[in-house]
Amino acid sequence: MLAAAGAIGSAFSLGRDDLCLNPMPLHHVHGLIGAGISSLLAASACFCTPSFSADAFDKWYRAFSPSWFTASPAMHLALREVPAGAAPANPRLRFLRSSSAPLPAAIIAELETLFGAPLIETYGLTETASMICTNPLPPARRKTGSVGVAWGAEMCIIDEQGKALPAGEDGEIAVRGPSVIAAYGEGAAEGYFVGDWLRTGDLGHADAEGYYFITGRKKELIKRGGLSVYPAEVDNALTGDARVAEAVAFAVPHPSLGEELVAAVVPAGGVALDGGALRLALMEKLSSYKVPAEIFVVESIPKNEAGKFFRREMAQKFAALLAPRGQAPGSALESQLLEAWREVLQRQDMGVTDNVCLMGADPLRAENLVEALARRGVPGLRAKDVYAAMTVREQAALLEARGRQA
């Protein structure tokens, strides 16, 4: 713990003139070590807030004029709604720090403009007692999308067999050093160490200058019909849209693909968002297999006290949104389409507003649907239409529009 805290003080040149504004809970390494103990070791001050809200943080920021503050990405995203750094100006602020989870690259420039100071992304784990990697302070170079260079510990990229990989090649991040644990407790699974190197479970690569880039978690990799999707990439693409404050992509079970990809987003500043329109916008940014089958617009994304969400829990947290609604058909065409889908998917609980992909549709079943509709004398729907119009109601509207054009 002291090694990690000392490395933070060294990386950020902390001293007697510094004051840290710390809204992070003190039973997590980010708040306790990353802000608290690092400040104590540097003989600097630290104001630990009793809780966090954007409005309360704004008041504390104005009252204390900190030289730096540290927060989780969720907190940073919330601060965009309150212009704390815009007025009054705070010439004392040297930098702001983000840790605990990746911060979308598109948000960094916005926050730096808002607060008038550089935002420093760092990387660490509970097993490393906080930070082991950081972007350096100016005038040294910071790289967008990178968590920086190793600091206070050694890092490397390894393959499945534990062999070190050269710069530019993707693999698993491994670490060792004075702040890194030497072993897990009794009963823990084996395979977490290669010699004295700890396997972090994080995937990424390092460039020729030693800057590290994280692409996702090994356990979070989504296999969508045999194609690999790193959900963090989808998160970043969604939050790159100025209308989106937060986003989380996650997997739900699928009978033939194994896993289907969905996402939940929180609108920024009361903006009206449409999940279908976001899907279309995402088609311009990502390969089609990385675009979620459905994007839900929600009020908030469930997180723990440190501001982290657990991706593997999202399907359970949003179970009500994922459940079939069973909406009855409102026209003869909707009735024929729904009957055909229920036959193909063997799902009697689905309705005309349910996403067919979440009900079990895939490319083969889309072809089967076209055949089932032809038997019912309903021509005009193509298999690829299923991925543009993803509910029975949307497909009926598509067919009706084509009929009018014809």
What does this structure look like?
The chain has three domains: 2-215, Rossmann fold, CATH 3.40.50; 221-322, ANL, C-terminal domain (GMP Synthetase, Chain A, domain 3, 2-Layer Sandwich); 332-405, ACP-like (Non-ribosomal Peptide Synthetase Peptidyl Carrier Protein, Chain A). Strands 2-1-3-4-5-6-7 form a seven-stranded mixed sheet, sandwiched between helices. Strands 8, 9, 10, 11 and 12 form a five-stranded antiparallel sheet that branches. Strands 15-16-17 form a three-stranded mixed sheet. The chain is elongated, with a radius of gyration of 24 Å. It has helices spanning 2-11, 29-41, 54-64, 73-79, 105-115, 231-239, 275-283, 314-317, 319-322, 332-345, 363-375, 392-405; strands spanning 19-22, 45-48, 68-71, 95-98, 119-125, 130-134, 149-150, 154-158, 171-176, 193-194, 197-206, 212-217, 222-224, 227-229, 244-254, 258-267, 294-297. The longest helix has 14 residues, at 332-345. It is 29% helix and 22% strand. The protein is an alpha/beta fold. 39% of the residues are buried.
